[in-house]
Design the sequence.
């Protein structure tokens, strides 16, 4: 059950005295570039597809931000991608698979590491054998690249990327509104603000999840099942966390390279939703947790409220 | 502390072996002890003090005030620190160095940087034959680090180059990049002889063209490659400095197909 005590009200929006409970994750950042922003984004969207929840997808990934040509390694338009998993091995497996299927294959793409770290995992090194012996290793000025001949020309990819064990996954906000339209408006406003925070991603579609889950379920082998306490159609027949005025709930899940990145994203998202007010957006904003006993990172809404 | 300085008194009567004058070997010696170190190469004994006035006490920053083409093996097996030579050096400067930085304001003799595996060697003048190459009997030449020569290089620069970067801003003598195993060799001027002869892998930039190209190199056509842009930018921002290619398309030849054939030569278009 959510931890709800004395709520605070800002701009007519109730903010629960609750907290988001988050977990350590291993993550990295990469740069994908292309001849145009369109094709960099195509590669990035493909790479970050089916990467909403580590439970079923093996990783959580998202677009951190669009990079101008002046910010990229090769002077072309680019996109910064963040990808997280529970451990180094799982991250390396997902990174290699997605790189090979989604970036290598995308026209005009190139891929570079975008996170320094003492610990490193394979990037281009993971897929170099696709070149069937024609791969070319280039090491210069402290960097290592793989060049792979492809039908279009040559795919250039940095050999390794740094990783961090300081990643945080599972930061979240719950937007409780009268209608689904208002819940979506609040969540959209929050996502728009959170997208401006570097080092954090919202891995669900458009940054928003409508089917938040609880741990386990009545059926065996179900690792997660619908969060019935927040389902408006179950008010009265389950141990609901919703009052009679709530007709729809949406959630935003946040992963970040650091605790601060997640906190910053939650802070600006909370403010954006509060600024929207209860008539256009959410009546109430909460956060999901497991009683504080499972995840070491606790993001208390009262500390993040505007 | 001030840098350890060797001021040349006069031109030596014989070739000198200065391989002992590296930071790691001199770190715990006083100037007086250093002055007694033998550096002669003939039956006539010569010590450091006979040729140099020694001053300073920081062995991690060694300076030779006055050079000579008879100063052999300067910085050989260097592991760290800096050596600066104001003038010329003889053979094997920076040979098998693993780290640190050697700066020569004049020219260097043969085998400069041969079989080095790390660090940076900068030569403001010309370099002799087998720059970054291998001695007879060695199977691998330079295997890491970087060399920049502002002037010309002698024959067979980068012979058996395994890894690392050699940039020669001027012309290269006969058969630059011979037997290259991998790595990068940049020639800003014209390459004499048959550059890339028997190279297995690696990248050879011949920005001023070549006297002769072996028929065992095959024309791949015009190559518009990101790696050219990345390399030009990385070198310009790093120790190598600006290089004579910009990232614009170049003509690529693959070879040497007389051996493995996985190497490449880049030439300017036109």
Sequence:
């Amino acid at each position: 059950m959510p931890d709800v005590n004395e709520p605070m009200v800002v701009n007519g929006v109730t903010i629960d005295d609750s907290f988001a409970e988050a977990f350590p994750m291993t993550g990295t950042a990469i740069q994908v570039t292309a001849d145009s922003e369109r094709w960099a984004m195509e590669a990035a969207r493909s790479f970050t597809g089916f990467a909403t929840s580590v439970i079923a997808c093996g990783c959580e990934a998202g677009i951190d931000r669009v990079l101008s040509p002046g910010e990229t390694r090769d002077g072309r338009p680019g996109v910064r991608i963040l990808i997280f998993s529970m451990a180094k091995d799982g991250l390396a497996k997902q990174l290699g698979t997605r790189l090979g299927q989604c970036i290598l294959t995308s026209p005009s793409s190139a891929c570079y590491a975008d996170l320094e770290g003492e610990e490193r995992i394979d990037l281009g090194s993971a897929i170099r054998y696709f070149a069937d012996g024609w791969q070319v290793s280039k090491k210069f000025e402290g960097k290592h690249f793989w060049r792979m001949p492809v039908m279009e020309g040559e795919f250039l990819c940095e050999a390794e990327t740094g990783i961090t064990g300081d990643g945080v996954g599972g930061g979240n906000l719950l937007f409780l509104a009268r209608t689904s339209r208002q819940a979506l408006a609040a969540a959209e406003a929050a996502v728009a603000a959170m997208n401006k925070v570097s080092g954090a991603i919202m891995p669900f579609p458009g940054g928003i999840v409508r089917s938040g889950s609880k741990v386990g379920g009545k059926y065996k082998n179900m690792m997660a099942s619908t969060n019935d306490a927040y389902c408006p159609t179950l008010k009265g027949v389950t141990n609901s966390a919703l009052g009679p005025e709530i007709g729809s709930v949406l959630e935003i899940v946040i992963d970040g390279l650091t605790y601060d990145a997640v906190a910053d994203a939650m802070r600006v998202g909370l403010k954006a939703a509060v600024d929207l007010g209860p008539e256009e957006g959410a009546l109430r904003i909460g956060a999901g947790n497991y009683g504080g006993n499972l995840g070491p990172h606790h993001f208390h809404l009262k500390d993040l409220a505007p | 502390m001030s840098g350890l300085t060797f001021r040349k008194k006069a031109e030596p009567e014989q070739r000198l072996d200065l391989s002992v004058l590296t930071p790691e070997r001199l770190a715990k010696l006083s100037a007086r002890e250093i002055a007694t170190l033998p550096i002669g190469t003939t039956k006539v004994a010569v010590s450091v003090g006979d040729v140099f006035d020694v001053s300073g006490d920081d062995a991690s920053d060694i300076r030779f005030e006055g050079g000579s083409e008879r100063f052999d093996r300067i910085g050989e097996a260097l592991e760290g620190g800096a050596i600066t030579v104001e003038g010329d050096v003889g053979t094997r400067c920076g040979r098998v160095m693993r780290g640190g930085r050697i700066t020569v304001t004049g020219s260097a003799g043969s085998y400069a940087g041969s079989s080095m595996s790390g660090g940076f060697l900068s030569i403001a003048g010309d370099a002799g034959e087998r720059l970054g190459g291998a001695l007879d009997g060695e199977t691998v030449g330079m295997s890491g680090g970087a060399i920049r020569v502002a002037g010309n290089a002698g024959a067979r620069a980068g012979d058996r180059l395994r890894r690392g970067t050699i940039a020669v801003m001027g012309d290269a003598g006969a058969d630059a990049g011979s037997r290259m195993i991998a790595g990068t060799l940049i020639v800003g001027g014209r390459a004499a002889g048959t550059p890339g002869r028997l190279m297995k892998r690696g990248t050879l930039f011949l920005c001023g063209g070549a006297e002769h190209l072996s028929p065992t190199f095959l024309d791949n056509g015009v190559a518009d490659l990101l790696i050219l842009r990345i390399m030009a930018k990385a070198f310009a921002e790093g120790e190598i400095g600006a290089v004579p290619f910009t990232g614009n398309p170049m003509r690529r030849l693959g070879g040497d197909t007389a051996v493995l054939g996985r190497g490449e030569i880049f030439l300017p278009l036109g």
Q: What stands out?
A: Chain B has four helices and 15 strands. Chain B has a mean pLDDT of 97. Chain B touches chain A through 25 residues (CB under 8 Å). Chain B has one domain: 61-267.
